[in-house]
Amino acid sequence: MKGLVIGRFQPFHNGHHGMIKWAMERCDELIIGIGSPNKCDERNPFRFWQRVEMIERTLPTDAKYETIQIPDVGNNEKWIKWIKENVEFDVFFSNSRNELTIFENANLKTIYNDYRLHSLCATDIRNKIDEIKANVPKGTWDVMTGK
Asked: What pTM, to 2 d.p., does this model score?
């Protein structure tokens, strides 16, 4: 069975890691859909390739998964239509009731991912990154971020 999870992973944190491991235990292969792949702004500070690298450096080298881009297309109907036309999978894993409803309304199989992200929030992590960036010289920041 081939599963699908979708997230922006801005950044890929321990909650995401736990959720991905949870999903991997329930399928033979996992597709990790990275949302907003072309955005780079305050809410999306990491580029697509950086998020792929975060995932690749975290998951075991023998894990059966692939990362793909899931573009923003403007509304839920167009988004799910794009996914149905471009992504081959058997089941969608999510802990987002909104996403589950979108997939279920499109007659796609879903499994509620009961792995809790606990108190982890990518927005809080990004805010801490901004705080660090504001308190180190540009040269230090560039080294820290691999620029």
From this structure: 0.84
